[in-house]
## 1
Amino acid sequence: MSRGTRLRIRGGTVHDPANGVDGAVQDICIEDGRIVASLPDDAPALDARGMIVMAGGVDIHSHIASSSCNHARRLLPEERVPEPAPPGIAGGRSGSMASVPSTFTTGYRYAGLGYTTVFDAAVAPIMARHTHHEMDDTPCIDAGFFTLMGNDEYLLRLVDQGERGRAKDYMAWLLGSVGGYAVKIVNPGGVEAWKTPQRNLTGLDEALGSSKVTPRAILETLADAANGLGLPHPVHIHCNNLGLPGNAKTTLESMQALEGRRAHFTHLQFHCYGEGGGWKSAARDLIAHVNAHPETSVDVGQVMFGPAVSITADGPVGFLLHGTSGKKWVNIDVELETGCGIGPLMYKDKAAVAALQWAIGLELFLLADDPWRVVLSTDHPNGASFMAYPQVIELLMSRARRDEALAQVNQKLLAGSALLDGLGREFTLNEIAIITRAGPARLLGLRHKGHLGVGADADVTIYGSDAHLAQMFSSPRYVFKRGELVVEEGHLRHAPAGRRLYLRPGFDDAVLPGVKRHFDQWGTVQFDHIGVRDLPGAPLEVG
Amino acid sequence: MSTHVVPNVTCLGCGLLCDDVAIALEHGRIGGMAPHCDRGRAWFGDGQVPAKILVKDATVSFDAALAEAIALLRPAEGRALVVLGPGLSTGAVRAGIAIADRLRATVDTATSAGAGEAILAGQRRGRATSTLGEVKNRADLVLFWGADPTATHPRFLERLVAVAGSHVTGERTVVSVRIGDAGGPTSPTLELDEAQEASALAVLRGLVLGRLPAATPEHAALADLAARLASARYVAIVGPGEGRDARSSALRAEGLIALAQALNRPTRCTLISLREGGNRNGIESALSWQAGYPFAVSYATGVPRYDPGERGLHELWRTDAALLLGDWRALDDTALAALAEVPTVVVGPRASDAPFAPAVAIDTGVAGIHEGGVAYRLDDVPLPLTPVVDGARTAAMTITALAEALGPRGAGA
């Protein structure tokens, strides 16, 4: 099927929670790449009786297309597995599968899972041009990225001076210039400290050097600015102290600092370790806050057992992991803004800390009152590959499978875990639809994604009903991207270019002379070359 | 025709990719550049390049040349070699890799012989590096290790060292270590034979990590250097990017990487490798995202396989036809002689001047002079290119046309 044609998906069991549809048998009609209310009776039809119909998956937090990803690819040639071009695809490309797949393979594999929209979660502004290149070579998915700003030197100066209005205008200019979609904060202030003898910031009110800049001030300023600009997605926050025992205190303080403001806290599992010495779960404490604050959302960052790669803008974390593992390590300090740490990881089910991390992720899902605000991620490839999503879904839907897995893992640090208390919750298909597409789309402010209502993008995934849940979610029967058949019976049939998702928010250009002076004085890239021109398509609306 | 100036042009004359260059055009020719730079001036020249299309030295139409190229390359599917040379935009490189994938070719970079060992060292150990702005703004001690950018990267000192840094208080310290004949931009603090280099780097690392006693007389000079490095706030080590024989390149690269990583315990450190220009980093970057590997990729079995031990230009005996994209002048004499032994299609700047009598030669412009797009700095920062001289056929369009003419996989011979 090509765009411009029609299709009736007939008689499937539809899970479209954004529109209040929970397992109803009904038709879904597609015309010109959109969902429409109806089609003539003689329109082509696909018999979906007995199958599960959902919107295409939406990944709110992944690392698929950035200079950091590319450094990770280069760092680990030994883990790559060649992957042939999909047969029958005009212009189909070969590639390699690994913790960080090559670009074409990334697009094919996401589509093969029924995902049609993906966001890269961390792109340095001066590396944005690279991300756009990679996304040009990542077919099948609509893609965008979050722009790193939580350690931006110009922004930190404005925070120091209390210039919140100028900070907002600068952020709007920067986001629009590089073609980003949302504002990302990584270890606020801590990455800048990593480049100095201070080396990190560990407390929310710890000052950066002799300035007034603290993680709290950064969070408040950037969150207010993003919300003030009306960005569809609020600040996307990777808190201070990722991966450290006792870090839940910092995480909770960060959430409390932004109470009343929309804010998204990412890969919460990595920030969910309780106080009192040693490693322990703080999932109950953190999820209680999330449950009580509708303005707060999270993605989980589920760990699954097996190889992974740490790719982070959190330079001090990369150094810490290198010191712990002794494995090879890449550190890249990126001028005026951020850092980058990369290293191989291995999560073993017999390792106590890895088992705790695995358990905490599941606790967060299972203790959440509102799945719309606690959505799926593995922080690909940090906690696991996105290819592990079907296994995560199975663990959430089947207590028996979960208990079976729980019995296999190292129990040493699981005392007090809600999992051991017999958490019996089993996610329904509707809840899975929420945490994998409807919820992420809503949190991202993507009005045409994550649902099957009239006017939505015709991104549709159809699963064969299968008692083997991981198998069912690993291999959809059909995937449509804007109405085009992309996957059929587990085989890639078409690999269309995806749409770029980016914003160009308005701002007061009175901010620009100061910004230009800053870049002219301290940058190594001409001010006029910061912006990325000739982006495909048009920016999405703001506000 | 008038005289005018094009501002903010990105120069690919070396790996610095200075993007603040003003190019003066006089009657359609490049008449000057500011700020002046010998490497840059040589790169831009007068902006004139040949515009021939040749099949066996005879002038033909573009379509005829494409047809001949296809006739040579298609039957070589599975036994073809694609060489990616400098002077291409990253967009052109992407199209070139697509051709290699389509032809199930071996694809390599024209400069892998000089750069490969350092890349492999990075794959064994990782890296501690930064973008160039961190050298400028944070490095209070810059160590030039057997590298003098004065000749190879003429504006390195002006742009990054002899300039105020936002986080550098007081004087910036510059230290040079001479390795054999290769000195730095200042009088050497230390002079080493090439044979001493690897062990000296190991000793420095041991001293920095406190695993060697600093008081040993034989290590006195190294101990002094190690102490200076460890007590700086932010160290930039600047080393050679390419060249020398494989064994010494590997040892040097691995030693420098290990030292830079070790220095991140007592202080902070970045290692900057002085890669050459022409978008070398862009080629490796695009290969990495499309195939997963930065060079020496074989698609012969239909999938990318990494084979850095048997690089394309050393394995021409397996090749029925070669496709050289980019500037052939980056190849060494051995490679040029080898290409004379196989039917070769050349698409790129000055293709018609290639000394090995290509079967097909299609002249194109040069990225950053005649065509736009993106090229990568030596620190992997991608920068936009500005075409300053009109008229030349663009490599990106030509390579894309060749890819389209080849058709999809299985299109047959």
Note: Chain B touches chain A through 63 residues (CB under 8 Å).
## 2
Amino acid sequence: MSDQTTVPNTQMLSVRPPVNDTLLRRALRSPSLMIGLVWLALIAAVAFVLPPVLGLDPYAVEPTNRLEGPSAAHWFGTDTYGRDLFARILSGASTSITVGFVVALISAVLGAAIGVLAAFSPVLDQILMRICDGLMAIPAILLAVALTAALGPNVGNLIIALSVVYTPGLARLVRSKAMAIKSETFVEASRVQGAKPIHIMVKHILPNTLSVLFVQSTFTFAESVITEAALSFLGAGVPAPQASWGNILNDGKSVIMQAPHMVIFTSLFLVLTVLALNLVGDGLRDLVDQRSQPQPKQPGLFSRMFGFGTARFQPTTKGTKR
Amino acid sequence: MTDQQATPLEIRQLSISIDTPNGEIDVVNGVSLDLREREILAIVGESGSGKTLTARAVLGLFPPRSTVGGAILLRGTDVLTASGDELRKIRGADAAMIFQEPSTALNPVFRIGWQMSEGLRAHGITDPKERRRRSIEMLTAVGIPDAEERIDSYPHQFSGGQKQRIVIAMALALKPSVIIADEPTTALDVTVQAEILDLLRECRESFGAAIVLITHNMGVVADIADRVAVMYQGDLVEQAPVDTLFAAPTQEYTKRLLAAVPRLGHAQLRERPAPVASSTAAERPVPAVAASGLNVVYSGGFRQPAFHAVRDVSFEIAPGEVLGLVGESGSGKSTIGKTIGGLAPVASGSLRVFGQEIARLRGAKLRAARRRIGYVFQDPASSFNPFLTVEESIAEPMRVHGAFPERGARQARVLELLDAVQLPRQMAKRHPYELSGGQRQRVGLARALTLSPELLIADEPTSALDVSVQAKVLDIFTELQQELGFAALFISHDLAVVELLADRVGVLQRGSLVEVGQTAEVLTHPREPYTQALIAAVPVPDPVIQRGRRAALAERPR
């Protein structure tokens, strides 16, 4: 009976994703994810690389050329002090991306830690979740304004304020996922083996919550960029000489009739960046959640560009062939 | 319905293939079957054999991205070329379906009366009173007591067996000539299963329906089927009347399939050395588990009564002994296993594991006790962390307890365990989702044995597996148990499986241990009426014997 061949093979139909269908290939097949990532990479590269290369100075004042339209010398024109708007927008991009990224990172780490701890200890759960409830009860912008007003407006404090605003939501999410994972059999299996809680948290619970954490962090990134712009617009964010999309918009608001290019170019960058982040978030969610993409679609623009898997996809004809 | 001469159902050269990222997979290859008037045709096969896909095709239900060829004639109408409107007319009126899991086939937020009349409304019965009258009539026919009142209940107010009766009533509502029953009893206990099979038989007798029964349980086939079709990997392997098939299977696969089915009362008595327990009480070794007057109560939470899962249970497991626990769902057998692992609270009474009260152990002592216990779980799908490889899963107990501190030693131990459960060593680097259910269950066994436990708790380890795979896993279990000599608590609802493995058997009924004794004695000469009923309800995979038993049961006053 120990002979392997006596057992009929029952693994014939496996609908699960095949082994060679790596995450990278699936990512290449998702157009929204790739478009978002390409735009973000582009803007990050331009914001951090171009200014030193082209010698763009966002603080150089040319009082004679105030509020000029786009020209060869100033691609996007100049602002109210005659500063180069292109340089200002790129400098603002680096501020926005830095703030957004650091806030997303901090709130993800804190949120994961709080969420997993809360899922494990009923006492900590009550304490931590009530604090989160309290923070979530206050509107995000109001809380952020209050915190920056109390701490003083600079980039570091802005990051702290925004992290406080966005951590509770992530903690909530991680907690609910951790609760679900905690009831899975493999956690029970680890417990009856005599594993300590810290082992279970780090080895079993945390890796299984990473997927939702990643997706939600991307959305937090997008929201932080918007909130940072809003706070700077209100004067509670990045202080004046330093560039930020929010304070450029504020400067442009007063001269919107004479020099609409200030508001138009800045808004365009803000909108496109947030859109790109949301596209990445949506794409990641599809990638992580198998159910939301039950069938492989036609190969996407990007997988065709990179030459993956075009051969075996023919349009399906459902019907009889007699 | 116009063509009365036509057979109820004729499947000609049906083939289905599904387009997956791996290319096209043929899941059904040229299957031809026909169903005669008032016949029960069983389609048997293991998971992935295409039996369900074939049966669902009769109702025009196909998986997404599939290509279909052949013809399915339902009373002369080809289902495959029928338009959406025609299909809707056919479904329910000419052919109806009974689903596997009654608790998910009913929508929990609607009253069952509403759900039953849904189908009637779709088939043009507009008068609400008429719909209600018909629904009550069907509920009464399937044996729901007080149908007049129960029709306004919600699904959760019925038991599993009653829910399946309601699903059958829904299928019968329009008196279809063909009923497709997809594993109708798999989710039910044996005693309930016997009742549902009786009901299906009645459906045929009083409504004249022909039934296609999909199942993997050869006992059910022997009990109810007139003809049997065996499928394997999308092919129709063999088709024969039930007596012929069981008495003289012609195909190799059918023979193997029948041989793999454990039969109650046919297990060779295990040739094993008599337990080393010496006669004098003083020298008796400390039992692995000793329960006396054990009670387990789950606290009920907010405004809900506490649930008394285990009542006054007393038993012992000697070192090296295998105790089988059988009982229906909700009888508390899994709870006992969990309590031994320290996962469920002891309300009162005593439960000693290796001589120590498990409920009083804390911290390091509890960890030390758990080190001596291995656990195999029921569901192979959820008992592994998808982020860990097979090697990491098996090595986890060693990391937890700091045994085999060097990496090399750990790896060597993992490979040794993979050999022991007869899995190829390359599997170590795989992830659990790349393994089949049987392979995963063997990995589960390897993980439980990592630290050479003295006690193994196996909670329904084979109930999610196909029979041939189950036979393999049980073989490995028996071999390892004899080789390593650990004591085991083997929990199962399948009496035949327990008979293969256990030295002694305990029978649980609603939390109480009604009978415990030597396996052969309990299963062949049960003293308690409950044990007798349980054994009588298990269908024997032999149509001749089963017919005799049914006749005997019919004579006995209920």
Note: Chain A touches chain B through 46 residues (CB under 8 Å).
## 3
Amino acid sequence: MNDVEEGFFFLTGKDFTNAGVASSSLKGVLERRGVQQDIIRRTAIAAFEAEMNVIIYAVAGMMKYRITDTEICVTIQDMGQGIPNIELAMTEGYSTAPDYIREMGFGSGMGLPNIKKSTDKLVVSSVVGEGTTLELVIFLKKEE
Amino acid sequence: MTLIEILDILNARVLTHPVTLQKTVDNAYCADLMSDVLSFSITKSLLVTGLTNAQVIRTAEMAAIEVIIFIQGKRPESQTIKLAEEKHIPLLVTDLSMFDTCGRLYERGLRSQVHHLNQSPIETCRTKSL
């Protein structure tokens, strides 16, 4: 395989019925490409947490992916409230989620930490009142 | 541990069809917080939960969890069951509590061989949150 594959999905805030569909589709793409199982799982977990963040906190967003021979890049960009203190948001257990989100099993303050743990590179950029962009990179193991 | 054994130990019922009763799980994990589930890397595992929404199925799909058991007779909506069937994730339900469900499975030899996705900085996290 030496082709580059790209695609994107739209995400709608508060659309809990379809929450996870984008990550599920991305997982499907990786499975079709025959990517290693543990890499698929890490990518799916990171993408899903990021997708849930958009659904929970933002008005709308987009998940873009680009898969090359060496890495999987996933960019999740949203139009949302933004993160005032990224360092605080990266702390395990820190959450600003309302109760109804917690009742769904999310908002326990593990989202961004989980994304960081699952990825090889993570760049979080955010402007309060405008939105947040997450850039995730997962390396496809080669000869390591 | 096979699905048949689990059904027997917990006096559980199957919610999804068709189901392969010979399917086996090697690990178990219990949580109502889906992000907790996603913070571990576990294979061939069973998730014990009291949460019955569609996000549980999505979480299982992402975390490669193979079987879900709902406690205290909690049944998900039919749409959620349908989603699980599409994803080939068997759903079971038991009338037992979370404590009894886990206790019985543990007693019969099922363990939780979880490992963090990488070295989780628990100590760092504690100092940070103080």
Note: The CA atoms of residues 111 and 120 of chain B lie 21 Å apart.
